[in-house]
What we know:
The protein has two domains: about 5-120, Rossmann fold (3-Layer(aba) Sandwich); about 125-264, Dihydrodipicolinate Reductase, domain 2 (2-Layer Sandwich). Helices cover about 30% and strands about 30% of the residues. It is built from seven helices and twelve strands. It has helices at about 10-20, 40-50, 55-60, 75-85, 100-115, 130-140, 175-190; strands at about 5-10, 30-35, 65-70, 90-95, 120, 145-155, 195-205, 215-220, 225-230, 240-245, 250-255, 260-264. The longest helix has 16 residues, at about 175-190.
Amino acid sequence: xxxxxxxxxxxxxxxxxAKSIHNNSHLIQxxxxxSRNKNKRVKFANQFGxxxxxxxxxxxxxxxxxxxxxxxxxxxxxxxVIQAAEAGKHVFVEKPFTLTVESAxxxxxxxxxxxVVLAVGHNRRFSASATRLKExxxxxxxxxxxxxxxxxxxxxALTYTPDRWRANRxxxxxxxxxxxxxxxxxxxxxxxxxITRVSAQAKRRAVTVDMDDTTSVLFEFDSGATxxxxxMFACPYxxxxxxxxxxxxxxxxxxxxxxxxxxx
Length: 264
């Protein structure tokens, strides 16, 4: 069975998702798309050989579409997920899932009630280095898990202008967390468990738009381990995740699948 999906929100990242699917999978295909911008709809449809719809409601009313791939602005995710679930469509939504706990619970409940699959785009879980780190944790290589530290930073916000939809505190709370840091928060939870306590600070130091660019976060996890995340949106690119245990330390470059370890 092939899943017929519609791409919703046609910015740069929707194109990257479509490229990963187009002519590469027999399990899913993009058969339609929607954006408020007609030119984007036509361009996307021509590039990937799909149809295009004139409204999101028209997509959801189309019985030939099984699922939606949502990469709209962050503040619209919850609304779009709930609408899709109520229409009986499976959902893949880009991170961040939603911007508040309350809206996340409502969106999750809508999918559960409708019996549709809900997936969030935390793709770093599927990297080779993350897979190996999880195996080592399950095998007890680290013995007692003590601490995890991560950083995901990039210069992107230095080029933001006020007309960019991401260039404000609503769509980009705590600076680069929604665009960058959330990937490593997901991995920290994947490795160390649910977060039980958190403390964060975020400041605007260099960018010209109204959002933060320098964020640091301290975590405590239900495994008892502690953690740290740094996320700057106005410095050269860096990304790493380190794990420290009583028997081993591991140092991962998740985006390039480089992994090294120190074992007692």
